[in-house]
Amino acid sequence: MIIKYQALLDKLASSDMPPTAQYRINVEKIARYRIMAAQSNLDDPEKVEEMCNCGQVEELVIQAENEMIVMDMYLRNRWWELVKPVEVEYDPGHVDG
């Protein structure tokens, strides 16, 4: 499990995806947390499962493998470039009509 999630972090680190891309931020946070959970409970898979709250350890490994597939598509298509900042005008005192 640790190896799979570290591979995700390594791929992100070697990519040209900006550190501000929300996808990167999310994947890094999840991967780091799951690595920490696994490293601090090497002999207690039930504790890892409880901390991650996303299935059994075997399922967490499958999730990492699936995320690698998604990440490959994300990097290949440079999907972070499709996300543009949006400016929202908000005036709570304005009454329309």
Summarize, please:
The protein contains 4 helices and no strands.
Radius of gyration: 18 Å
Tally of extended strands?
Answer: 0
Number of alpha- plus pi-helical segments: 4
Query: What level of helicity do the residues show?
Result: 55-70%
User: Residue-averaged pLDDT, rounded?
Assistant: 93
Percentage of residues in DSSP E strands: under 5%
Oligomerization state of this entry? single chain
The helix-strand sequence is HHHH
Shape: extended
Q: What class do helices, strands and sheet pairing give?
A: mainly alpha
Low-confidence stretches: none
Distance between the termini: 58 Å
Main sheet summary = none
Name some characteristics of this structure.
4 helices, 97 residues, single chain, mainly alpha
In terms of topology, how is this protein built?
Layout: H1 2-13, H2 22-39, H3 45-52, H4 57-77
Helix pairs in contact: 1-2, 1-4, 2-3
Describe the structure.
- There is one protein chain.
- The protein is mainly α.
- Helix content is 61%, strand content 0%.
- It contains four helices and no strands.
- It has helices spanning 2-13, 22-39, 45-52, 57-77.
- The protein starts with a helix and ends in a 20-residue tail after the last helix.
- The mean pLDDT is 93.
